[in-house]
Amino acid sequence: MKLGFIGTGNMASAIMGGIIGKKMISAEEIIGADLFAPGREKVKEQFGIQVTEKNQEVVEKAEVIILSVKPQFYEDVINQIKDCVKKEQIIITIAPGKTLAWLAEKFGKEVKIVRTMPNTPALVGEGMTAMCPNEHMEKEETEYVKRLLESFGRVEVVPERLMDVVVSVSGSSPAYVFMMIEAMADAAVSGGMPRAQAYQFAAQAVYGSAKMVLETAKHPGELKDMVCSPAGTTIEAVRTLEEMGFRSSIIEAMKVCEEVSRNL
Ligand SMILES: NC(=O)C1=CN([C@@H]2O[C@H](COP(=O)(O)OP(=O)(O)OC[C@H]3O[C@@H](n4cnc5c(N)ncnc54)[C@H](O)[C@@H]3O)[C@@H](O)[C@H]2O)C=CC1
Ligand SMILES: O=C(O)[C@@H]1CCC=N1
């Protein structure tokens, strides 16, 4: 087995979908453990991976292990597996707030760890992941993990101090973007557009706008100005958004998100 997951919920499924979809690792070489039987069966059926109820079995069989349980369960899981983890295995963490220092203390021995923060667009190969290897990772091992993570989107190695910011700007942000798409579609429905069509229009507009930011390297403000014709429709929408605190509500929400991550 090349890859193992402890916890086969939303984020693990998104990563599995991305990795298998890009043929980076085949489903037969992936094993996942979950306490919850229907959760295990779901990924077995959806992706064709091997599943087990025993976390230790994942550690016995996999070369790279992703700890994909909620942060609150990290300590229990680490206590369960730490004695079976071998020196050459690589542990990837995806939980907010769980620092490399905390992880090292909980494992209590030399373990290769890469702290990461992915996001659910991994499922469609458009994830954004930050990674931060510990001191026991060799250069080639870090490169291998980076390639693995790149199979489901973009990856950046960042200093660990930025990890809580990453949670708010990319780990959690798909939720805010989905809310915006939902709200945009609701307004379009209110204007008479059928709902399915409204989601398509709203989502494609968000997707295309994001692509413009990434591909033109222009300042987002300049791209916004390009849409606003004098005395036109858009500038009135922009004025209303400013009046309703659109940008400050996003900034404030993200500061709270960052703070929660720091304290988990
Ligand atoms: N959902 C997201 O968008 C993102 C989640 N994350 C992180 O990913 C991790 C997992 O989050 P989700 O997938 O959203 O949660 P989830 O609740 O969908 O999945 C967690 C899974 O772990 C299982 N589980 C709980 N205790 C276990 C144990 N002791 N042994 C084995 N399995 C156990 C649960 O049954 C569940 O299926 C969390 O640390 C979260 O912060 C990181 C980035 C994005
Ligand atoms: O909500 C959470 O705690 C996780 C971390 C980033 C996205 N979801």
TrEMBL record:
Entries under SUPFAM superfamilies matching the protein: 6-phosphogluconate dehydrogenase C-terminal domain-like, NAD(P)-binding Rossmann-fold domains
Main location as per UniProt: cytoplasm
Entry's family note: Belongs to the pyrroline-5-carboxylate reductase family.
Protein name per its UniProtKB record: Pyrroline-5-carboxylate reductase
GO biological process: L-proline biosynthetic process
Keyword Cytoplasm assigned: yes
Function: Catalyzes the reduction of 1-pyrroline-5-carboxylate (PCA) to L-proline.
Subcellular location: Cytoplasm
